[in-house]
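Saturday, quiet lab. Running sequence design on the structure tokens for the scaffold JK sent over.
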């Protein structure tokens, strides 16, 4: 697996060895009990030391569930970091809503002027979609029903795994609508599952136990933790804002529709 580092389940490239594929989440490797290195979990011998394959259960327990994979993902993210829109905007949210006291920006036109976690989270998801489309990773196309938009993959995502862009890119090309993809991506990034049924239907049912934090706050925090490459703040903000302006001006009705899809997707989660 060292030569290819490609997931045998989804076929996507993997930057560093890990027990689970960062894209599809399925098990692909184990830690060899003899040499303590990752090796293909379906092999009969370790790819590194040649010993009969015996997974090191104690080492796996010592590392802890999820911890080792996350560390590996952070290391990979530093190597493959892109100047993603969500990471830049999350660090400069006030400026991306207002250029100065008089001039409002495209995000104000789409989401309003009030800076609260719900609007911030919606803006970050919107800019992630705009970035993926403008950079040629994803595309939207009409579904067979004529009313929905399908979220398609154009080329595999090669940027940060732990980012809103990464979460959205992993949902592309699965035959899902944009709304379904947004809900899955939000759930993946926050660890909070969407509630069952449309928001209007849920009001007629008893309320479920709420998570300890509103999902919007978790989305904003996830974007702020995105690993970014070295950059100059002013230049990065200009670059990302120009991308957003071009995206919105190219098709204003589509931009408004995406904004509406994002806001609707957030209503599926406890506020």
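Result came back. Writing it out in full:
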């Amino acid at each position: 697996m060292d030569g290819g580092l490609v997931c045998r389940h989804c076929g996507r490239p993997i930057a560093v060895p890990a027990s689970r594929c960062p894209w599809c989440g399925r098990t692909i490797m184990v830690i060899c009990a003899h040499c303590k290195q990752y090796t293909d979990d379906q092999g009969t011998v370790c790819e590194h030391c040649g010993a009969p394959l015996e997974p090191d259960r104690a080492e796996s327990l010592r590392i802890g569930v999820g911890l080792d994979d996350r560390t590996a993902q952070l290391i990979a993210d530093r190597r493959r970091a892109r100047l993603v829109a969500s990471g830049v905007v999350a660090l400069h949210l006030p400026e991306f809503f207002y250029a100065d006291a008089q001039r409002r920006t495209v995000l104000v036109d789409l989401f309003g002027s009030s800076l609260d976690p719900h609007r911030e989270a919606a803006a970050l998801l919107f800019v992630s979609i705009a970035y993926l489309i403008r950079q040629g990773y994803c595309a939207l196309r009409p579904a067979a029903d004529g009313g929905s938009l399908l979220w398609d993959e154009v080329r595999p995502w090669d940027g940060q795994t732990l980012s809103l862009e990464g979460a959205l890119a992993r949902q592309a090309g699965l035959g899902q609508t944009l709304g379904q993809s947004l809900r899955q991506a939000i759930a993946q990034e926050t660890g909070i599952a969407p509630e069952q049924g449309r928001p209007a239907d849920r009001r007629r049912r008893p309320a479920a136990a709420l998570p300890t934090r509103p999902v919007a706050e978790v989305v904003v925090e996830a974007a702020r933790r995105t690993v970014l490459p070295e950059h100059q703040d002013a230049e990065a903000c200009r670059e990302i804002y120009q991308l957003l302006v071009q995206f919105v001006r190219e098709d204003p009705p589509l931009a408004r529709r995406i904004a509406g899809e994002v806001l609707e997707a957030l209503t599926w989660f406890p506020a």
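Notes for JK: The two ends are 43 Å apart (CA to CA). The longest strand covers residues 138-142. Ask whether to fix the surface positions before the next round.
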